[in-house]
């Protein structure tokens, strides 16, 4: 637990990193609750320091993306290690391993423990934030994250719903084309949240709608096109009015 994390982040010899990840994974199985987060952070950073892609793939599968660990403690530790890895590794590595990382994160987002859900949502947030729109695989990666975000919004408890809405807002800002292609799926879910009695859910939903409908860009045609093709009579009637009464009065960069 006294491991100097700066050593991991610097030029540690590659021959030492693989044994280090193995030892950290063992320590995580036995450490106390207070040591779980720093231990998982160390494991994620250590994996991020592996330069050989084959070795990295093996380490990720063994220590961070193992299938359904038995205890929630182990699942939480893996989610925390994933978060540290995503923040510490190169963007090109995230892109290269996206097809493996995203399903692993989706399991955290779908977990029945709130703590694990929240870390999983944060992991998706890191991917959205770190991968630039100029990356050739940007659209594909954002498109693969969206279904898991929609599923989370449908099933998530109140405690994690504001974070899920903020995640969806970030995705809409980063990849507006992905959002536009799926408005019929996401707008009804988000619009339902503006009626929530929880003020954090309500406010998060309103700001999410601003970016989904590109109201911050002054593109009224997005809303018009959505309403023209919306088969839900209730939404068709009330959404336009809500935009005029409420959303148009909010700070558009919120």
Give a written overview of the molecule.
The chain is mostly helical and 254 residues long. Helix content is 73%, strand content 0%. It has helices at residues 5-9, 14-30, 33-48, 53-64, 72-88, 91-96, 98-109, 114-130, 138-155, 161-174, 176-180, 183-193, 199-212, 220-228, 233-245. The protein is elongated. The mean pLDDT is 89.
Radius of gyration: 20 Å
Shape: elongated
Specify the number of helices. 15
Largest sheet: none
By secondary-structure content and strand pairing, the structural class works out as: mainly alpha
Mean pLDDT, as a whole number? Answer: 89
Order of helices and strands: HHHHHHHHHHHHHHH
Q: Low-confidence runs (pLDDT<50, min 5 residues)?
A: none
Instruction: Kindly estimate the percentage of residues that lie in beta strands according to DSSP.
Output: under 5%
For the secondary structure, the number of strands is 0
Question: Could you state the oligomeric state of the chains shown?
Answer: single chain
């Amino acid at each position: 637990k006294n491991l100097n994390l700066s050593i991991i982040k610097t030029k540690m010899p590659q021959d030492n990193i693989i044994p280090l990840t193995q030892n950290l994974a063992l320590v995580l199985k036995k450490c106390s609750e207070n040591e779980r987060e720093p231990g998982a952070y160390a494991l994620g950073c250590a994996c991020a320091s592996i330069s050989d892609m084959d070795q990295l793939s093996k380490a990720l599968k063994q220590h961070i993306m193992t299938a359904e660990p038995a205890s929630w403690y182990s699942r939480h530790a893996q989610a925390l290690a994933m978060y540290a890895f995503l923040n510490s590794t190169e963007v090109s590595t995230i892109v290269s391993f996206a097809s493996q990382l995203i399903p692993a994160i989706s399991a955290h987002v779908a977990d029945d423990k709130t703590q694990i859900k929240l870390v999983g949502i944060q992991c998706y947030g890191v991917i959205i934030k770190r991968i630039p729109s100029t990356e050739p695989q940007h659209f594909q990666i954002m498109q693969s994250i969206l279904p898991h975000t929609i599923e989370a919004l449908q099933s998530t408890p109140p405690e994690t719903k504001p974070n899920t809405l903020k995640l969806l807002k970030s995705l809409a800002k980063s990849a507006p084309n992905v959002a536009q292609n799926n408005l019929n799926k996401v707008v009804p879910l988000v619009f339902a949240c503006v009626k929530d009695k929880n003020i954090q859910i309500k406010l998060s939903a309103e700001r999410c709608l601003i970016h989904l409908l590109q109201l911050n860009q002054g593109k009224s045609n997005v809303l018009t096109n959505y309403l023209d093709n919306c088969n839900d009579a209730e939404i068709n009637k009330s959404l336009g009015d809500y935009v005029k009464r409420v959303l148009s009065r909010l700070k558009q960069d919120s």
